[in-house]
Amino acid sequence: MNSRHRTDALLLAGFCGFLFFYGLAYFGLVGADEPRYAQVAREMLARGDWITPTLGGKPWLEKPPLYYWQAMVAYRFFGVSDWAARLPSAMDATLMAIAIYLFFRRFRPGSEVDAALMTVSAAGVIAFARAASTDMPLAASFTIALLAWWAWYESGVTVYLWVANAFLALGMLAKGPVAPFLAAVVVGIFAVVKRDYGALRRTLSIPGILIFCVIALPWYIAVQLRNPDFFHAFILQHNLERFSSNLYHHREPFWYYIPVVFLALLPWTVFSIASIVETMRAWWSERRTMLKSQEDAFNIFLLIWLVVPVIFFSISQSKLPGYILPALPAGVLLLAEYVRRHAASDDRPGILPIILQAATAAALVFPALLLGQILLLQHLIWGTLTSIALAFAGVLATGIALTLRRPAGLRMLRFVTLIPVVLAVAAVLRLYAPALDNALSTRPLAIDLGKLESKHLPLAVFNVRREVEFGLAFYRNQEVNRYANDNGQIPEQEHLVVAPTGSREELIRQVSGRRVLYLGSFAPQHLDYYWVSAQIAVH
């Protein structure tokens, strides 16, 4: 390894370490998915079962096991914790960054650092690399698979095709058949556009198919044999019905993913759009000749890769931001190619893109410095701190714009844009992690409940969000009962119950005559907690 490669490795390690791993335990698991997936992995590890995911002791067949397996390994080495639950996504994002770097070093030398660091610093990548979820395992395996396919397509080296099949199989284990399906659509559309139909035939090689089957199919066969309802629960309900209906109440407008993609690409959105427009314009004006060049063909491949997941999930009746995470690397890699082309010819960007880029990048710091106020009040109040944050962002934007306006300023795009990214992440983690913990996680609530108990009591919830229920189940490592209208899930023994503030009278009616003692409140999330006596047996 020469000195340049050592410097690159240190840069990549430093940025991945800070953006993905630093402060993983600063605030607790948030939302419903993080604590739920973390608890599933804990239960599988406790049972020593690598086949059937369970939640509350019951089969939980919504997702394949790749994330659970990774979390189980993390738990085995580091113990069960929220940061260990997030470790798999951070590791997968790092592996994706390394793969991007190695691909560009081999096939597009000179832009490998730009490609890798721009990818790891995109807002969507940072967010999901720090989340205990299945989205980053899918995005990482999908990205590596498509890059490996292109490496095979450009070089003809068969090993790359085998690598592509192996990582598609891991994508199948990460989130199901969506990985090979989307890859097949991307490759198929590219082959049609390129008019290289032989590439499709060569892609379906027998060794590659065998590699895919050997990696992906054993778990699917094993879980179906142990759980006869797996096919219906996973394939029909959590894939087909989720796509074709609003079964899980995630309906959004058709155009939902357009702003989501633009936000997820921050701070690279402006020049990513410029690279998309330039690629589309060049292809349209030179359709007969453009694809003869491997570099031009690669840009079209990236464009198809970006667009296909966005269109596919826009058609879906169920929409969540994480669904289009596999598309984001393509958008950033298009930008890396754009920078490589224009920096090589010393092109100077126009004044409008420079102003927009500077404003967009610097704007990341403004909400990061005021996050505590946003979380507490749900809006901004003009004051000294707001003025300081605005002035700082303005100075930062001016410096970015002046740098990019210099001759060959595009070569400095990565450097000047990474500065506000690092500052924003540092501000959020160092200044406002406790506020995030109180506002979004049940970890502080679980700690408060534990301090009140002389013995570990059963726990129930009443009229609370799913995030609270699943969060308490993980942090207390126990099944959480949910009060039902027919009283069927109210524990008969004494127990604790968490309910929205002001629910005391309704709660008393639910337990019909049992003693209810108010214990305290968790003000940041407007929750109260109570002790409920055991039900008196009637003879």
Descriptive key words:
5-stranded mixed β-sheet, 3 domains, 539 residues, globular, mainly alpha, 24 helices
Model description:
With 539 residues, the chain is mainly alpha-helical. It folds into three domains: 3-233 and 248-345, no CATH class; 354-437, no CATH class; 443-532. The longest helix is centred in the C-terminal third of the chain and has 28 residues, at 413-440. The mean pLDDT is 90. The chain starts with a helix and ends in a 7-residue tail after the last strand. Helix 19 runs parallel beside helix 21 (413-440). It is built from 24 helices and seven strands.
Quick one: overall form? globular
The low-pLDDT segments are: none
Oligomer: single chain
Count of discrete alpha- or pi-helical segments spanning 4 or more residues? 24
- Count up the domains: 3
How much helix, percentage-wise, in residues?
A: 55-70%
Separation of the first and last Cα atoms: 81 Å
Number of strands: 7
